[in-house]
Structures are given as C-alpha cells and as structure tokens.
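Customer escalation, tier 2.

The customer says the design service returned an amino acid string that "doesn't look like it belongs to this structure." They asked us to rerun it and document both sides in this ticket. The original structure tokens are below, unchanged.
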C-alpha cells in the first residue's frame, strides 16, 4: 500500500482534532488588517493573545473583536497566554481572568524567571501547571528543553509541551538541537511544540524535521517587512518539514558515501547486453 505523505496529517490536543501545525501569535503587527491577513495566510487553527497586554491597553479596545472575526473566518481557536507573569500565583490569577474573558479553558502558561533571557522559571511553572490542571484548564506550558521538567509537566496533566528553541523574540532558531532531539526520542508519545526564538521559515522546517508536532511563533511574522507574505512562507515551511519527517530524513554521516556504486568494470547505462 502506498504511504500517505500528506504534510498536514492531523493531530489532537485534549480531544480537539487539528490539521495545521503552525500556531501564530498576535502581538506587534503594524495594523489590525495586516494581522487579520496574516492569520488568513498562515492557515493557522490556533492564535495566541496575551491578557496582560490587552489589559494594559485599557481593555481590549476592539482588539479581541478583530481576533474573533479572523478566527471565525479562518476557523481558528484562541489560546490565551500568561505572558509577563513572574510567579505561579500571578499566573494562576491571570489564567482565571483569561478563562472568564475568553470563555475557553485552553491556556498557554508562561512564568518567566529571568529578565534578560525571559527563560521560564521551572519551579513556578510546574506549581502553576499543577494548580491549573486541577481547576480544569487545558495547560500548554512554555518551558525549557529540560527533559526532567518536561516529564514532570506531563505527570502534572499537561496534554502538550512547548519547549523553547531560543529566547523569545531572538530569531536565533534552534540553539540546542541535541536537547530537542532528546526530548522527541525520550517522550515519543508526547505532543511537542517548539515555541519561541524562531526567526526564519527554515527554523520551523528544522523543528518539524526533528519530529516535533508543531511550532508557535510571533515576532518573525509580525516584524517582517511583509508579515502576510512571511506568514505564508512559514506555512509552507511547516508543511515541508512535516512531509520530510514522514518521508524519512537522511541521517548525517561522518564520511563520504558514494551515491552511485562503482564496480570493477565500466557500465554503459542503456547499452544492449
């Protein structure tokens, strides 16, 4: 039977079937219309929004209506996040507000522990995850690529893990492919999404080639000269990376391997025997 190599083969999170493996953030776009057009071009099914940023702007100021219309048009779901939180207590409080405001139990959980790198605080993150899962939230934790932490988050009931590729907004790509590859190998049944630090479509393709289930990014699209075109470029890169992983990416070698075997006698292809 011929293998199906459809790049957008489905995946599931907490009983919700998805096809797109490209999750998109909504901050920093030059205009609401560009944001809406980028969402459409990305063909994403999940968009993230930070509640702290919304409240800092003096209420949603029509922003949420724009997001909801783009979601309705493109069939996307909202994933509120706790960006800007520095403790488990703060994150839990903000999560409860997000559930009331956006009417969804889905939550991207962020608890930052370092102001310079914006690296997640593993201790506060795990504590918040345990509390929120107990309250019925579907927690998507933004975490480091530490294997032990990731196991603890899965044990806490998180249905998905979102390890960083590089510091948020840095555009550096996958700084530690070894750690990410180890996560994929040691957690074969977990849903893993590379989140943060991706700057180019090739970075997204690399993540999918490693076997990760999806990528989430914001700045690389929002800050592009043409965000809509860049959203389309990432969409295609994600599909290519997934198709490559399913087809079987060639393993790197430390030595040359001839692509055409050479025997002891010359062979003229197509010549009559």
């Amino acid at each position: 039977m011929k293998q199906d190599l459809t790049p957008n083969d489905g995946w599931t999170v907490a009983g919700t079937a998805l096809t797109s493996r490209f999750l998109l953030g909504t901050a920093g776009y030059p205009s609401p219309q560009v944001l809406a057009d980028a969402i459409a071009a990305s063909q994403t099914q999940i968009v993230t929004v930070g509640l702290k940023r919304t409240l800092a702007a003096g209420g949603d100021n029509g922003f949420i209506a724009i997001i909801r219309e783009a979601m309705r048009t493109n069939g996307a779901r909202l994933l509120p996040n706790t960006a800007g939180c520095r403790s488990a207590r703060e994150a839990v409080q903000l999560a409860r507000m997000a559930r009331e405001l956006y009417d969804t139990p889905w939550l991207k959980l962020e608890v930052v522990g370092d102001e310079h790198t914006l690296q997640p605080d593993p201790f506060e993150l795990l504590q918040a995850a345990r509390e929120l899962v107990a309250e019925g939230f579907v927690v998507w934790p933004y975490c480091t690529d530490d294997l032990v932490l990731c196991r603890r988050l899965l044990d806490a009931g998180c249905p998905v893990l979102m390890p960083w590729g590089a510091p948020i907004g840095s555009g550096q790509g996958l700084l530690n492919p070894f750690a990410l590859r180890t996560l994929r190998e040691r957690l074969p049944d977990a849903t893993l999404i590379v989140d943060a630090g991706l700057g180019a479509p090739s970075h997204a393709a690399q993540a999918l080639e490693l076997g990760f289930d999806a990528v989430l990014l914001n700045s690389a699209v929002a800050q592009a000269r043409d965000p809509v075109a860049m959203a389309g470029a990432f969409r295609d890169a994600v599909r290519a990376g997934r198709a490559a992983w399913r087809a079987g990416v060639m393993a790197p070698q430390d030595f040359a391997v001839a692509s055409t075997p050479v025997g002891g006698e010359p062979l003229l292809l197509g010549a009559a025997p």
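Tier 2 assessment: The sequence is consistent with the input. The chain is about 40% helix and 15% strand. The CA atoms of residues 48 and 246 lie 27 Å apart. Sent an explanation to the customer and offered a walkthrough call.
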